[in-house]
Design goal:
The chain has about 800 residues and is of the alpha/beta class. Among the domains are: about 70 residues, no CATH class; about 230 residues, no CATH class; about 70 residues, no CATH class; about 120 residues, Immunoglobulin-like. About 40% of the residues lie in helices and about 20% in strands. The protein has a six-stranded mixed sheet with strand order 8-15-11-7-10-9, sandwiched between helices. A five-stranded mixed sheet has the order 17-18-24-23-20, with no helix packed on it. Strands 2-3-1-4 form a four-stranded parallel sheet, with helices on one face.
Amino acid sequence: MSFEVSYIGDYAYRLPEDVLLAEKDADYVRACRALTASASKKTPLKIWVRKHYIYTWLQNFCEQTQLPCHFSEKTARLVLSDTWGVTVPDWVTDEDVVSLKLLDLAVKNEQPCRFAEALLGHFLGSVFRGDRLDRNRIAEVLLALCRQETKELFENYPLLSNCLREQGQVWTLHADQNWEKALIPLLISNPEDLWRDLSLWALLSGYPAKLLEYVVPLQQAIFLRGIPADVLKAIPLEPKGIEEATTQIEMFFKDIGPDVDSSSKFQKAIQCTSGRLIIEFRMVKSLLSAGHFAPTREDIVLVKDKFRQCLGLDAVELTTLDYMVMPERPLLPEKDSLNSPSAWASWAVNAYLPYRNWQTKKGHDDAELEGAVRSFSDWYVENYETIHQNAETSLVHALGAFHDSIQAETLSLVLLADGLPVTFWPMFEEALRKAGFHRHLLEYRFAPLPTDTEFVKPVLVSGDWGTTQKSYEAILQARATNDWPGKKVVYLSSLKMLSDFMAPIEPAVVLLNLLASDEILHGDSETKGETHERELYRLFMRVGEMISVMLERRPEQRESFGLYVLTDHGACYILDSEKRSFESKIVSKLFTDEKRRFAMIGKDLADTVPENLWALGYRFVPPFIKSENVFFIPRGHTTVRAGAGKGYTHGGATPEEVIVPVAFFKATKAAWKAPAARFLDLRIDTRTGKEVFYVQRVIPVRIEMLNPNVEDIRIVRVAIVKPNTELKGLDLPVLTKGQATNVRLDCYFDKSALGQEELVLQFVYEIAGEERVMEMKLAAEFKSAVTGGSSLKDLK
């Protein structure tokens, strides 16, 4: 049995667990006793000594007692090697270890490694460890080296420069791609310039080649073009690179502007852009508004898809593009074709409301479409009782539909946005998505008449047509007693209360009465130099952020949190050409508030109202409650009161006032299912069992896609991953929830496909605001044939 005694001077800071330290005279006796005891038990012992005379005493003691002991003098390098579990290179001296106090650093290594990666990993992160540079983390390495804090570290620890050079040499040695072998030395020696160059390439890669060559040397441009696109996506943009790229982009758009006189040329310009700069978006928008061509809906969708991830570009800016294109005019419903709530809701949300919003922005009169709106009003009033007796269509039953989920949750927030039309719903959803909330359900329900807070909100909160209670807090408490037993209820009447709110520990239902949305819509934004959209978007962003902060205060409730967004009614914007008014004392008395389009008339006075007033609307008597009043509900967009305000109004029976969104969000993602898909019209070769395709021909590929979700799916883009193929045309309809839809792709297979054995398609689709990817594969054989398919000459 041999024991170890080492003289370490003043180097050591942290001791291994199996080492006994002797540094004072008193420790000499303790060390001698430990050696004697260890010898009798035959267990190894390590003693480190700081004072050289104690080291000499122990040598004499072991000689006199004849203890088998190995004596050595450890250098700072040896102590460092033992402590860190590293191999210390020759260029690290004892003086370096002592002067830089390296033994004071809490460097941890799970397994033995090189000194360079240990020190770099300690200061700059785990990305600097290992023999290979992770290509998916190049951006992380780049930013770490460009930080000011890193520069200060290199000044305080000069050894880091040597470590970085050594690590770069190791990474280069193990790199298997030529572009990596060229990039790593630049990354190590000059990260700032490399960041600038990568930013320039990320921004200018789609533009003509000369733009990049104006800002970097030709040889560097050749190198940059060899870097894969997926590396560029992760690179944040360097300010100087942005500035230099912006100059080139502005000049490019100035040059091409007069020539962009068609959608095809405009779309080519869009393909050039990176989609990462607001200046690009503004240049693109200027092409749309220049008047050289009539933009199409496809043009707008292309721009939105390209710039959807652009930092600093909010939903309002993208929404303004919609006003540049006249939406497809809604098909006017034939008699009895829209005879159900679901049919009317689908027509309104998908066809009518986008067109109506454009109408109001452009002041475009459409008397024929107004006839369809009046048909809706007629249908709604006529079928009012049936609609509201149905728990799946009536807004009154909306909260009841969520009974089970609310009862199961630890924390439920019911966000009641006052007077929010469907038109502005996408902005609200985006704000919530940015705050970290994921939509699990979106449906459309019908608000009671009159579409006004005073009459709808108490009924919506209570779920009871006959409620007479005016206090929302009392209504909420009564509902909780009946529907959510054991739940604490909290009523918040303002955003200020939400910002200060600490959710209770016990299970709770919280109601936020968000009045600000209705106030914004009733206001005249133009006089403030604003738009309703921008004011609402700012409001929605604040709401999302505050809800997120509320959850941060109670992180344990995140998994069991539900957010229910409802509105009591919608709102409409009346064009001057649609206003109908006449002056009379009765009209002035009945219509005192420009925000409300309806009138409440006592039954005893109803017969005294002139017939020419009733001719403009409906004599509506609420069917589910006892009332001493009759309501005048305007038909279509008719108004009665002269001099109506410039903002939005409500109280009528138009689709935008009656049909409202109801949505459910969680802080966790929904388990959406990928669409099921199958190829149609296959021509399988019975000998090979493979589908036969012909190269250098336009071949239609038809696919049936079944959407198994309760949300519609929008296909964003399609790519042919294998073989090399050009898409000559494609039909990408929305995949309606619960239905099968056909998709058509016109494929032109390159002759390089000959010999390939598989067709691989990639679909990028969007559901509930989330983008996902799916692949389809088909065993295939690609042939060359004189006939088969269609010639390019057949394309018009």
